[in-house]
Specification:
single chain, mainly beta, 2 domains, two-stranded antiparallel sheet, globular, membrane, Zf-LSD1 domain-containing protein, LSD1-like, nucleus
């Protein structure tokens, strides 16, 4: 099967997981991050406040950073995942 990636909601590390998984546990932060529903188009951007990598559902107009709480404008980010 294929692999995909997402960012841990707790420590912001990039997590790799098998396509079809419903959640993934971060080995560093020990937190479980749920997968978006199948077919959801995701994008990513770098926070203007703390430079953390943020993932969001494509089409959102703004994204609040869970680390520093900066509200970032989402201009299609740096591409789909």
């Amino acid at each position: 099967g294929g692999r995909s990636q997402l960012v841990c909601f707790g420590c912001r590390n990039l997590l790799l997981y098998a396509v079809g998984a419903t959640s993934v546990c971060c080995a560093v932060y020990n937190a479980v991050t749920a997968m978006p529903p199948p077919g959801t188009k995701m994008a990513q951007l770098v926070c203007g406040g703390c430079h953390a990598l943020l993932m969001y559902i494509r089409g959102a107009t703004s994204v609040q950073c869970s680390c520093c709480h900066t509200v970032n404008l989402a201009l299609e980010g740096i591409g789909p995942l």
